[in-house]
Design goal:
- The protein has about 140 residues and is α+β, with helices and mostly antiparallel strands.
- Helices cover about 15% and strands about 15% of the residues.
- The chain has a 4-stranded antiparallel sheet, covered by helices on one side.
Length: about 140
């Protein structure tokens, strides 16, 4: 929920608000579309903000190739965020009841409130191999 402001007279509507799931990976495809660049030599993650449409979920990842921090991957929707770390640690936040992500339901020592995450884990594994705009 980080704001972004853009101005493009004749192309962007003044005062328009977009509450769709977006990420910083969408900036490059947006700039390329705005510049009318149609050919690039590599797959490009993200989706242009100039196109209509929305995501049901967003894949967010951190690779560890040049860092000592453990890698992780996460699925975020408007209602939850599920994260798996290379260390085996998992987190699940109910964003409707805990928008500040203060209570990890998988790490609060109350197994009675643990969400079913097997399907989310499978989706995350499959999405981690996606490339380009087909990624969520």
């Amino acid at each position: 929920r980080v704001p972004m402001f853009a101005r493009w007279p004749g192309r962007l509507i003044t005062g328009q608000r977009d509450d769709q799931l977006r990420a910083n990976i969408d900036i490059a495809p947006t700039a390329l579309e705005a510049a009318r660049v149609t050919r690039i030599n590599a797959p490009l993650d993200g989706r242009s903000l100039l196109r209509a449409g929305s995501r049901a979920r967003l894949l967010v990842e951190f690779a560890t190739s040049k860092s000592n921090a453990p890698g992780w991957a996460s699925l975020r929707t408007p209602t939850y965020q599920y994260t798996e770390y290379e260390t085996g640690t998992r987190e699940y936040y109910d964003l409707q009841n805990d928008p500040w992500q203060l209570r990890n339901l998988l790490g609060d020592d109350d197994p009675g409130n643990d969400p079913q995450v097997a399907d989310l884990s499978s989706q995350l594994a499959a999405y981690s191999r996606c490339v380009g705009s087909s990624c969520p």
